[in-house]
Design a protein that fits this description.
Strand content of chain C: 15-25%
InterPro entries (chains C, D): MTOPVIB_plant
Strand order of the largest sheet of chain C: 5-4-3-6-2-1-7-8
Shape of chain C: elongated
Largest interface: A-C, 90 and 60 residues
Oligomer: heterotetramer
Number of strands of chain B: 15
GO molecular function (chains C, D): protein-macromolecule adaptor activity
Helix content of chain B: 40-55%
GO biological process, one term (chains C, D): reciprocal meiotic recombination
Distance between the termini of chain B: 27 Å
GO cellular component, one term (chains C, D): condensed chromosome
Pfam family, one (chain B): TOP6A-Spo11_Toprim
Order of helices and strands of chain B: HEEHEHHHEEEEEEEHHEHEHHEHEHHEH
Bound molecules: magnesium ion
Largest sheet of chain B: 6 strands, mixed
Strand content of chain B: 15-25%
Distance between the termini of chain C: 71 Å
Chains: A alpha/beta, B alpha/beta, C alpha+beta
Order of helices and strands of chain C: HHEEEEEEHEEHHEEHEEEHHHHE
Helix content of chain C: 25-40%
Radius of gyration of chain B: 22 Å
Amino acid sequence: MADLYKSSLLYSDQLLCYADVLPPSQVQARIEVAVLNFLKTLSSPTPAISDLALINRRTSNSHVRRGLLTDVSSVFLSRSFSVRSLMRPNAAKAFIRVWKVMEICYQLLIKGKMVTQRELFYKLLSSSPEFFASQLQVNRSIQEVVALLRCSRHSLGIMASSRGAIAGRLVLQKEPEQEIVDCTMCGSSGHAITGDLNVLEKLIIQSDARYVIVVEKHAIFQRLAEDHIFNQIPSILVTGKGYPDIATRFLLHRISKTFPHMPLFALVDWNPAGLAILCTFKFGSVGMGLEAYRYACNVKWLGLRGDDLQLIPEESLIPLKPRDLQIAKSLMASEILKDPYREELELMVSRSQRAEIEALYCHGYNFLGKYIVEKIVQANYL
Amino acid sequence: MAGNRDHTNPSALLNKIKEFTRSLVLDLCNGRSPVVTLGRYRNHCSDPTGNCGCGSDKHKGVEVISLRRDFHAHRLDVLLRVLVIVQKLLQENKHGSKRDIYYMHPSVFSDQTIVDRALNDICILLHCSRHNLNVVSVGNGLVMGWLRFSESGRTFDCLRRPSTAHPVPIYVEDVMDIVSVAKYILVVEKEAVFNRLANDRFCDTNRCIIITGRGYPDIPTRRFLRLLVEKLRLPIYCLVDCDPYGFDILTTYRFGSMQMAYDAIFLRVPEIRWLGAFPSDSKRYQLPEQCLLPLTTDDKRKAAAMLSRCYLQQAPIWRSELETMLQSGVKFEIEALSVTSISLLSDEYIPSKLQGGFYI
Amino acid sequence: MSSSSSSSSSSSSIQKLCRNLIGSAVQRCRMSESLCRLSVLVKQSVESDRPMVQITISDTGIRSCLEFKWLDFAKSCVLDAKWDGILTVLTTGLSDEEIYQYCLDLKEHVPSSRLKRLTSRPKHAQKFSGTEITLCTYESIDNLVAGFTWFLQKMLILKIPKVAVELVVDRANISGSRCDNLFIVGEDIFCSSPKSNIECLVAGFKDYVLKHGNTLDKQCQSCFSNSDLIKIGTACESECLRNMEEVVEAVIIMTELPESPSPSCVRASSVGTQDFLLCPISPLLLSSLATIDWKSFGLNFKSSAVDGDGHASIVSSMHQRIQFGRNLIKRTVKTAMDDLKEKYEGVLLSLHAVEIKNYAPDLAHTIAGLILSSNDVHFQAECISLLQLLPYETFDKKVEDCIREKIITAIQMNDRNPQRSREAAQFLFEGESSVELELEEDDVEEGADSWDI
Amino acid sequence: MSSSSSSSSSSSSIQKLCRNLIGSAVQRCRMSESLCRLSVLVKQSVESDRPMVQITISDTGIRSCLEFKWLDFAKSCVLDAKWDGILTVLTTGLSDEEIYQYCLDLKEHVPSSRLKRLTSRPKHAQKFSGTEITLCTYESIDNLVAGFTWFLQKMLILKIPKVAVELVVDRANISGSRCDNLFIVGEDIFCSSPKSNIECLVAGFKDYVLKHGNTLDKQCQSCFSNSDLIKIGTACESECLRNMEEVVEAVIIMTELPESPSPSCVRASSVGTQDFLLCPISPLLLSSLATIDWKSFGLNFKSSAVDGDGHASIVSSMHQRIQFGRNLIKRTVKTAMDDLKEKYEGVLLSLHAVEIKNYAPDLAHTIAGLILSSNDVHFQAECISLLQLLPYETFDKKVEDCIREKIITAIQMNDRNPQRSREAAQFLFEGESSVELELEEDDVEEGADSWDI
Ligand SMILES: [Mg+2]
Ligand SMILES: [Mg+2]
């Protein structure tokens, strides 16, 4: 059955599972439904402790969705689920942890407060030390609550900061009649993307840009922003500073939905991690939990790619590290990685070399801008 | 901030670089192998008498980099390579990051720390600060509160939404028009606490400026803080975890770091006061036993090493708090204060400390 | 207890043999359709210098023929100087025309020539069945009588229906032959309404437990006075193996000891199984027992006995048949345990369930917290009604207690029928279900920083 | 090479003794102020059944008296059945009135009674000095003559000034006494202008090397034909020790082998030191050599010889004096090495300098980069002129090459005179000089954690 799902191109959106960005009242309602379900089963003529059905977050439950009409592919979790049961050996504590986290979130939502994961850890450590011994357990339990309620972590009242930044031809407004942020004027470190998904969802976005350039590294972003590249090419610059967080991807997704004809280009290192970052923007990733899937964007690979290596001096090519090979292996194993991306990855592995974007600086600090313009004009992207 | 040192404008620095190059060539033409002499700076030592003079901006002894030793040759090689890049940056009036420089010759530099040291060497050689070299750090700091300023024409208006975070400007020398109605500046160690205070809308009700360096503060954050202190003359308080790392971050704000000792005078904020968390806070705020984590061996080693730092003689109370921490054998994080009430920090802890003068 | 146990443990091999023979005789009686008599005659003869004792075990049960096969006592018995290893056996069935006579020489090394058939005796067309086994020994008659007394007394516990047991001792002392009829079963046995074997066993054991257990001659007021404390599970399983039906009956008796038993009560400290066995625990039986998942009943299986916090004793009334299927024994005991567990709520909870039960207060506290901290009165009202509490009972403790009780009940019930909790878990918001996976603790892969699609 | 080395290695202990005696004789001659003669007479006598050989080593040098002390050959020689261990020594000095006569019995175990003074012989007021040592052996005369020939040939390499050497062989065969004067030194020696010992040594060794090395009788055209390839360092150090001056002279010859030597040239593969030694390398010498920091010359010291990529041979002409100071030897060799290094640019670079030299291209590239990437043409012009390049030569490669050459030169010069780079380094932008701290690599404090400020 699962195989059938995987092979089906006509996969309907109904089968996708992802976490919604919900207002507190709806999250509250979902928690209440969970309590009522629990009590119903408990008070039935054949009383039982109802199991918690969580969306299965294993890699084996991930599938690739390819749009028929759009270019967007994404990774998603299908409706296969795992069971958290009190009665299972070695699982009782984890079961109760889910409920404990849910209880605290519920109370936070009522108070209208947000907490950090660390604060949540301390709260749980002091109230239920026998159940929570480490931050990791708290983080996992939060993920399970997300998988149970299918709402984003942020909706549960858990704060996360975003590392992302944005700059360029973009005007942001939190709500109508409120302060306007002109991202051409944000300085070279760009406008910090807030971690508050609710704010991002309501954000009013205006732009006269023609492209979005997604940059792997903050330093490159800074360089491009300092050079005002968005004035040479009318564009928006986005960086997730490495692997992008949810908020960054959420905002990028919103931009691409708001301006469906604005192509998205990615500028990443020529190494497996760079490709993985690109793929995270493009497809989402299982590792990020249930929240990640719906923000897939059709990002094109602008550079660095194998045919750019001619621009790079030999001494700037570094041998692949074991970590690179590990990432390459996991990318290779993924069905979502198709040619020509797969070919690029194979080239990296076969050459056993990697190159960083900064290596282009050997042609001068202005070169990067020229490089990007040339690539876009020649439609030299994958 | 500009004009803190003489002759740190790009053309003066370029002249210094040329002079240096000339002297190298001259040496070579005279059959002498290249030698670079650098002052050695430190911001602390373990001299218990306090006569070490670490606090001054004078160098202590010199370091001679020549070809006599293999590792010196490599260091010289790296220094010169970085110098070529710096010369280019200055000539083109571009800014580059340390990371940019690293990736120019990744196989030679092999590690970012090697580039960092070369940059420090060059700063010492040319008698300037790092930003004078047009080398910028990726900014990590965040600021919010009752403050407005502009950086290269862009206005950061935190006043309109005092509980919204803004990144700390990277080109601190370009920061102008600082306007503030704040009564004090609060420096917090970590972003999570910063976010907590933002979520509590602490700045809405408290006239202050809050800054975080997200752990060990980077140069822009420290320079920006220093700029605010100079311009606004406000009291400045610091809130760090009650652990050796928190304490080290605190001392970094106040005394500067060892790596940047040559520049400490422009980076340190001697006025900073320690607001918390003190070891004694665990009792005062009735932290549950579980939230007190035992000090690790590493923590203890670090704390013991810090106790012997000479600059703590200027801050004997700080030192005794660190001693107390070491003796108690436990540490805790600021977040642990949220156990009883999620807003304890904003509602009670910070206000009561400020009102009661419980800072040192 | 101490005297009987020591006599039992020091019982000679001849006594062990005799117990086996009596066991066989009881079985023959039970398999017979009519009332039966089992006699044990112990007779001292003074014919030779050494006082010899003749033991005759006779019964009126069905004909014997097969059970001698396993009389493989040669190794342990015959080397005994007190016995010549020779058994004389007379046996006849109801339909037999004659009385068969055998001589079993256990000294014989070749097993096939151990049993010799002698000339049959005429039956003179009489209709009866029965077996008589005779052997002679130089064992002390007093020891023998004490052993038989103890053994037969225990046998009576079984309340074997329709079998009368007698022990006749004939001491040939100087003052002439004396005959002691030591043991006569009360008449109620014969009059009792027809009961199944297992019911008789239960009744017998129950009586035994309610009497003062091991000592028989002392009454202890402080323990087992209340039959409500006794929990009994039974099972009778059969199996057809090579055209032979095998039946195993198991009775499990569980008593709760008073918290501080009177120190005079030896029972409290020594509830073992040995007293109840008609035969030594065979390795087969032991290994069968060992394979039972005692943990699922919250018990530990220890060496030759089963112990669960000192509360549980396992009693078996297996009949001696070497061919017993291991699985049959296991199944029977297991069924008897399940029977017991089913009948009495909350007993024999598995270790797992006991562990889970410890979590009940925490879970109840959390769920109650969720309900009570809500600012939605409709939601609260709905919960209260689901819990079948009255609206005015909604003070915190009451809700929490109620939920805890319900959780404990659910755990206990699900421990009895583990399959019940297996029913498909429901999605919170939709009816559909799909591939199901069960999670162990910390089972979920965390993708931390790595990108895995 | 193979023949000579085999004769040397298989030379008997009597031969080793004789070589020592000849060595002493050479020394006595050299210490004399006038022209001297050194004769070795090998005479076969047929007086007994076994053919005995009488060896007489006589010289006209200064009087001998002390060098016999160390003739401590008792352990290795006397046990030889071919020799009775007795040496007859006659010696007289220029100012002596008589000729002293000694008998040295090496068989004697007590060292003090080993040397016996016999009655002196009258000198008849003649003015001469000299020493004659005689011993008899049953050694084969052919072996002895071959050994002496080889040894004296090598001695000639030393071009010892003012000493004539002859080897006379007198075979008493049946056809009467035959006298072979095998060895007469060419007259040029006597006529040569007065040279120092060391100059003679150098000349001799140079001749030897330029001849076809080991084999002496073959000419190899492919190697050492060019004396420019030969690099020579010399040193003569003396030391006063207990009123005795000790002198050590060292000559170090270094040759560069052609890249692919003709395969017929045995020299290429076997440049050793053994051929050049007048005596076996003593443990004292070896240990002295071992303490030299060969690495600082880019060489490795291996077992009994010194090897540097197969190019370097170390040759010593130490005179045999047991009291040699270790340090003196070491100092002499070291000075000779330094002399060689000083005289020839770029040879015997220390390993360190070789390693550092690897940085030269990178450093040159970077320094050239600093110059060429400057946007200040005046500055560029200034640098170009400092480098003594012509303005039109400022294309990148030329500047870089020039700087590289200069760096390499500087490195080589500093390797020769390490003290020169020690001169106090100056601050570039400050006049003050300050305490110099030498930092070890790990001495630089690095931030504990990964933060970089
Ligand atoms: Mg990368
Ligand atoms: Mg910390």
